[in-house]
TrEMBL record:
The keyword Repressor does not apply. One of its GO terms (molecular function) is acetaldehyde dehydrogenase (acetylating) activity. It is an enzyme of class 1 (oxidoreductase). Keywords: Coiled coil, Oxidoreductase. The keyword Coiled coil applies. It comes from Paenibacillus thiaminolyticus. Residues 12-326 form the Aldehyde dehydrogenase domain. This is Acetaldehyde dehydrogenase (Acetylating). Residues 4-34 form a coiled coil. Its EC number is 1.2.1.10. PANTHER family: ALDEHYDE DEHYDROGENASE-RELATED. NCBIfam families: EutH_ACDH.
Amino acid sequence: METLDKDLRSIQEVRNLIKKAKEAQAQLATMSQEQIDAIVKAIADAGYQNREKLAKMANEETGFGRWQDKIIKNAFASKQVYDSIKDMKTVGVLKEDKAHKVMEVAVPVGVIAGLIPSTNPTSTVIYKALIALKAGNSIVFSPHPNALKCILETVKIISEAAMQAGCPEGAIAAMTVPTIQGTDQLMKHDDVALILATGGTAMVKAAYSSGTPAIGVGPGNGPAFIEKSANISLAVKRIMDSKTFDNGTICASEQSVVVEACSKDAVIAEFKKQGAYFLSAEEGAQLGKFIMRANGTMNPQIVGRSVEHIAKLANLNIPAGTRVLIAEETRVGRNVPYSREKLAPILAFYTEDSWEAACERCIEILNGEGAGHTMVIHSENEEIVREFALKKPVSRLLVNTPGTLGGIGATTAIAPALTLGCGAVGGSSTSDNISPLNLLNIRRVAYGLREMEDLAEKPAAQTEAASIDLSDKEQLINMIVKRILAEM
């Protein structure tokens, strides 16, 4: 019996999955809001009930992060995301303006390709399935090979729950033979309407280059500015909590700290008090060699790893109980590893003379990498916060909150999401936290209010005459005099 090569098996599997997903989506498109909502609730409930099991699977398979924090991420993806969308109108007539005779109707986009990273595998599957199905779409996942087992288990759990609630078979599916060729076929297939891409820069660029409409995210590299009016102890706590959450695997996590010279000593003392270790210049150079690879990309050996693991990798002797490694830095650039995105408990530390200089430093960091994504400011000065809001090239400026949990909407009131748009400046098609409303089209039904004759410009004299009250003799005489004078 002839056996197919892995890439051919992957391509054929994708074609089969898309065919079933298209058939399933045709059924979803006929369902009522109540039917869709029942399916979405079943997905959310299944994700929440299995949050611990899936967290441990993801941690064991990838080696990234902490399973305890992945439980929180799974709970966020299922419960908090669900609570934010459960009452959202996504089927049929969304809005009707009777005064202007315009009606808006929701139209599902169709089959969605969901690209899943290894850093947040199970939570991202739950989240993307929820928002896709809520908008009446089916979704086919392309799993990261290093997280295949936990992703397939997540898909199995939520798809079975969805079908028990009336979801057609094939509406939630995943490749079991993930290859570059298979994922390429998924992104470029004529029956795939939209790509929802979360992952590395190369993968996101491939999604945007596929010819299929895509929503993707660029790298995060958010600085955190501790302005002198901030509650330093609380600001440091928030940064430490954020940077250690799941060992820094969420792209909205802080990557550098910027302070003013007048508060530098107090901030450093507080960081040390809360478990940060400041590297010497020699130690910083030693660790810096392991942050980036020769091709300029992040070293996967540090991603989502503990401080102890990273220190051992770089042959560093650090105090027991260290939570975060910090290196003082003065430079920004592609070849300056501490100024880059580090999905690990590692921070750069910059000192500037004033808040204006700190503002410019944050812009420099973001323009180097991470433009359009997220940054954080800790301050009690509303005027300075406003200045940052007006100037920073980010889609999310978070104030007095942890970057990780604030950016995804867990500790802020922005839409709870695990795909964070970076806007045009970050090479993304939107700056939104992605919700079901980004995954449907709107058909507008508009009644005519004017005839063609109403659009034609009337002669000036006619317009003027039409505006005059002919019973007002003085006004009539003035009009006649003006016309005579104009003709002289």
